[in-house]
């Protein structure tokens, strides 16, 4: 009897103690399972042995850094990367399921066929056939290469018409006008270089990345049949030419001043900018000399060695007239390019252009090429092995049929309630920020008025556009994209051509800020501000994991 009484007494004490504890718990503290899991995750990442006042980075990330390993096929790892990896695994499932289910939807067939052909990429012959369409790669043909048949201008146009990388000498593209975001205009810019960092090229062969890039050039030529000593000699000239392009290109920090990068001119002006003009490094760094606003009729006048009207009209899907405005970014580069092209040996130019074709297609070739690429990336990026083939395939599908893949992702994995909840959170942040702006005393009245106006008119693009659920719209978007289930190499060329055609078709088009296609690729773990349209973009891909959980508190 005493034992029973004792048990009852203990039980009563526990009940009243628990009730008393519950009454004392701060109602603002979340104790749901999701909140407890999140608290545990935070404790696993922070380093409590360090004071946040002494080293906030170590305090907030210390344990995560200690416990996280960089995968061998990557050069870095972050919480963004972890979520992107998880999302990519979901995309793989969606694509491979679609491949098995014989979907009738056109865009689904295209993305699954592209995925399958990439898995089964072929060998060297498609690349050799492509090079032969330009007269061949001189380093392979040696004395049999016909110099008289080569013309860089005609070859550059052919690059665009076929659908091969076409930005190795100058970049031509259509985008929103930085000075008038209601329209799209044609831009001319410096080239995209083979080695990703222009400053690295300028360090020369003593730099590990440059020597690795040169080694890749030589080994690629040898793999296709060149003699090693011939490849070494001719690729040295190619590297010197690309370094010259890098030297005349702007550094990243110089390109950040967008007001100075904007130069309108006519095609006639461009033909007049180059004669007897060379730039010292001091002049190239002087921003007042580098950038000038001009009318479009000046384009042909400032660079007369190049037929800019013909070049541009062979790139665009809509011919332009001499009086039409184009935006030239960095006119000094145009001047320099117009001078050096006529002075460069045809063999060097052809070797450079063919090398850039080869470089752009390495991942589309067989295993020996992928091994060569892995060797290069290990030296330049620190990757120890190549990423799994399926990851490469998913990445390719995203880059080409990203809108279609986003449709599959939203239908399977995204809860539509998350869209409205996130929108409410962002609206609350806007309201609070507006209050902060009204309280500050250091901003001039005119500036404050503009800031408030910009805040009030900011567009919020959250989750996904509703049109993404309309399969007819998606099929219509991809109607001119043709994918062959048996030939990935040609698929890659067709895809590049289709993307380029679509971009150039937007020339002169009114920029519709509500064009759903601009915000329909939502399978990326990222959020960003789009300054040209004053829009905050939070795609569905980031609304997961540590960034979003509808069951966590909305403090």
Describe the structure.
By secondary structure, this protein is of the alpha/beta class. Among the domains are: 2-66, no CATH class; 148-364, Neutral endopeptidase, domain 2 (Orthogonal Bundle); 415-463 and 525-555, no CATH class. The protein is built from 25 helices and 7 strands. The chain has helices at residues 2-24, 33-45, 56-67, 79-101, 106-119, 125-132, 138-141, 152-162, 198-201, 208-223, 228-248, 252-255, 267-270, 281-285, 287-290, 299-302, 308-315, 331-343, 346-361, 367-380, 389-413, 416-439, 445-456, 471-477, 488-505, and strands spanning 171-177, 180-189, 264-265, 326-328, 459-463, 528-530, 535-539. The strands form 2 sheets. Strands 1-2-4-3 form a 4-stranded mixed β-sheet. α4 crosses α21 (389-413). The longest helix is centred in the C-terminal third of the chain and has 25 residues, at 389-413.
Which fold does the CATH topology of the domain at 148-364 refer to? Neutral endopeptidase, domain 2
Q: Identify the CATH homologous superfamily of the domain at 148-364.
A: Neutral endopeptidase , domain2
Largest sheet: number of strands, sense, barrel closure: 4 strands, mixed
Fraction in beta strands: 5-15%
Helicity, in percent?
55-70%
DSSP strand tally = 7
Distance separating the two termini: 52 Å
GO cellular component, one term: plasma membrane
Protein name: Peptidase M13 N-terminal domain-containing protein
Organism: Medioppia subpectinata
GO molecular function: metalloendopeptidase activity
């Amino acid at each position: 009897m005493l034992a029973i009484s004792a048990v009852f007494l203990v039980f009563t004490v526990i009940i009243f103690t628990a009730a008393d504890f519950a009454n004392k718990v701060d109602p603002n503290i979340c104790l749901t399972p999701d909140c407890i899991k999140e608290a545990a995750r935070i404790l696993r990442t922070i380093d409590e042995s360090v004071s946040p006042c002494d080293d906030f980075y170590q305090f907030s990330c210390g344990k995560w850094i200690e416990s996280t390993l960089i995968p061998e096929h990557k050069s870095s790892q972050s919480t963004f990367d972890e979520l992107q990896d998880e999302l990519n695994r979901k995309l793989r499932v969606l694509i491979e399921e679609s491949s098995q289910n014989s979907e009738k939807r056109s865009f689904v067939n295209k993305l699954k066929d592209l995925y399958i052909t990439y898995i089964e990429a072929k060998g060297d012959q498609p690349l050799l056939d492509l090079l032969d369409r330009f007269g061949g790669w001189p380093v392979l043909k040696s004395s049999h290469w016909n110099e008289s048949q080569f013309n860089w201008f005609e070859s550059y146009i052919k690059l665009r018409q076929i659908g091969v990388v076409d930005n190795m000498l100058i970049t031509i593209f259509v985008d929103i006008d930085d000075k008038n975001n209601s329209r799209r205009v044609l831009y001319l810019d410096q080239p995209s270089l083979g080695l990703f960092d222009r400053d690295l090229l300028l360090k020369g062969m003593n730099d590990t990345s440059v020597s690795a890039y040169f080694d890749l050039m030589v080994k690629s030529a040898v793999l296709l049949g060149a003699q090693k000593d011939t490849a070494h000699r001719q690729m040295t000239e190619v590297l010197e030419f690309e370094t010259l392009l890098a030297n005349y290109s702007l550094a990243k920090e110089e390109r950040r001043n967008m007001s100075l990068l904007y130069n309108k001119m006519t095609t006639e002006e461009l033909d007049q900018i180059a004669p007897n003009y060379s730039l010292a490094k001091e002049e190239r760094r002087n921003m007042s000399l580098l950038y000038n606003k001009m009318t479009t009729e000046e384009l042909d006048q400032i660079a007369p060695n190049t037929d800019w009207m013909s070049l541009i009209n062979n790139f665009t899907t809509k011919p332009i007239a001499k009086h039409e405005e184009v935006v030239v970014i960095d006119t000094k580069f145009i001047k320099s390019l117009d001078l050096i092209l006529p002075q460069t040996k045809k063999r060097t130019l052809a070797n450079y252009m063919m090398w850039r074709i080869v470089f752009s297609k390495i991942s589309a070739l067989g295993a020996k090429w992928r091994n060569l690429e892995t060797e290069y990336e290990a030296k330049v990026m620190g990757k120890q092995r190549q990423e799994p083939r399926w990851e490469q395939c998913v990445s390719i599908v995203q880059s080409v049929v990203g809108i279609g893949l986003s449709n599959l992702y939203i239908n399977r994995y995204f809860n539509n309630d998350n869209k409205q909840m996130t929108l409410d959170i962002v609206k609350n942040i806007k309201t609070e920020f507006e209050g902060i702006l009204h309280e500050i005393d250091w901003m001039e009245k005119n500036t404050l008025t503009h800031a408030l106006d910009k805040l009030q008119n900011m567009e919020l693009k959250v989750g996904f556009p509703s049109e993404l659920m309309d399969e007819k719209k998606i099929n219509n978007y991809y109607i001119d994209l043709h994918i062959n289930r048996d030939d990935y190499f040609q698929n890659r060329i067709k895809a590049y051509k289709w993307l380029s055609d679509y971009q150039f078709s937007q020339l002169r088009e009114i920029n519709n800020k509500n064009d759903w296609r601009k915000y329909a690729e939502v399978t990326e773990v990222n959020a960003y501000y789009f300054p040209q349209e004053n829009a905050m973009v939070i795609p569905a891909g980031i609304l997961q994991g540590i960034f979003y959980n509808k069951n966590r508190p909305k403090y």
